[in-house]
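Researcher: Good morning. I'm working through a list of sequences from a screen, and I'd like to move beyond sequence-only analysis. For each chain I'm collecting a predicted structure so we can compare shapes side by side. This is the next one on the list. No need for commentary yet; just the structure.
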Amino acid sequence: MKRIFTILTILLLLIPSCRRNTGYVMIQGYAQGGTYTVKLNMDGVAVSPEKIREGIDSVLTLIDTTLSGYNKGSILSAFNRGEKVRPNPLFLDMYSLAYSWYERTEGAIDCAAGPVFDLWGFGFKSGEMPSDEDVRSAVASSGMGRLSKDISSLVGEDGFLNPSDIVLSGDAALPVLNYNAIAQGLSADMVAAYLSKLGVKDMLVDIGEIFCKGVNPDGRPWSVGIDRPVDGNNSPGADLEGVWRSKGTPCGIVTSGNYRKFYVRDGRKYAHTIDPRTGYPADNGLLSATVVSSDAASSDALATFCMVIGPDSAKDLILSLPDVEACLITSTQSDSMSVWSSPGF
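Model: Good morning. Structure tokens for this chain:
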């Protein structure tokens, strides 16, 4: 993450100081196909809310032009097209982070499984109901295990990286990367890091995934609603299963679920959580996983991991991890829901 903080430091130097502000403000804008909301305490911060918004937008623009597969002009999109790219530090850092999660989850989180996600229509391309043969072919052309672990050393003296150079087998398919399992959480972390460098002590950053620390305007630790995971609940906060309350310490809270992105064919639901090891949507009864850890990127990855491995394995995983808490909501045979929370949630 050192390079990320270097980027944030450069951004800070571009922002002029002004008089100190007081009180809480809310800053909103557009990012990653949706909106973001940042609530922060301006006490002791020598930058205006207007300049802070400019800084936030600069951080999010950097992420979009580097890691977005929907932005056809991004470094990632060019890389996925097989073009040589000039990777910036964020591109290299994200690849290393993705590879570490691939190893840690034994392939359950695989950011090089872009062909599989695209095949089912849950990636950067449209698609539905592939054949078994198509799935086998997509899995064969996927996987971070086919790729070099350290791509920084493969950047040429001219500063460019060739996608074919990171493939371990010369005749294998070129990599297609998709960072959706981590990128939104990392975005929240990067905005939070930027605000912390400005001296912000109390904040809630919501970019679809959430990072918070300190207290809210009432002087209490932040609270976050957990959506009830029922099909059609597409408006966050409209139908809540419960409310999680923080302890005031820095943390990321992320929910992954199968109740917003899915389609139904022949009476069967196919949800967007794909097990990259098999190439098929996970079908294990887990409706949503809400994970709290020290940062939003880790919470993002762990929530996805839980959705892939199912409720029983997810419970064992969460209980084995220090300083990680979770709430898992599972469907039952009677079409009701079962809620499990770890002791510290």
